[in-house]
Amino acid sequence: MSARMMRTYSPCRKSLRNKYRKEIEMEIKINKTGERQITLTLIGRIDTSVTTAAEREIRPLFDYFEQEIVIDCTQLEYISSSGLRILMHIAQQGWINHCELFIKGLQPNVYDVFKTTGFVHLFKFKD
């Protein structure tokens, strides 16, 4: 993986069928941010409607595990149980490959989901 690696992914832009016609958008950015570090930035909402596409985008990352992976959640607004499953899969692959995994920037509502489900004990957190 070169130092200039950058991929952006937007699997889902669709209207909900409700009275608000609110748009859902999720984006994943993967950047090599250091000699042995990759940052995975999650933007928007991770729910059932985007998890299959998100898994497809994240899966190649497992071939290039570096020493440290930072999952940046500063722009993550919502995560469902299927989104947590993706993070669990990343954590499992990281442990298998002896990587350090960090989560940074959890919003209070997303942190509550992590706390309620016990995910706060699975990850290290960075400021």
UniProtKB/TrEMBL annotation:
Ranges of residues in domain STAS: 40-127
SUPFAM superfamilies, alphabetized: SpoIIaa-like
MF terms (GO), sorted A to Z: anti-sigma factor antagonist activity
Entries under Pfam families matching the protein: STAS (PF01740)
Family: Belongs to the anti-sigma-factor antagonist family.
Protein name: Anti-sigma factor antagonist
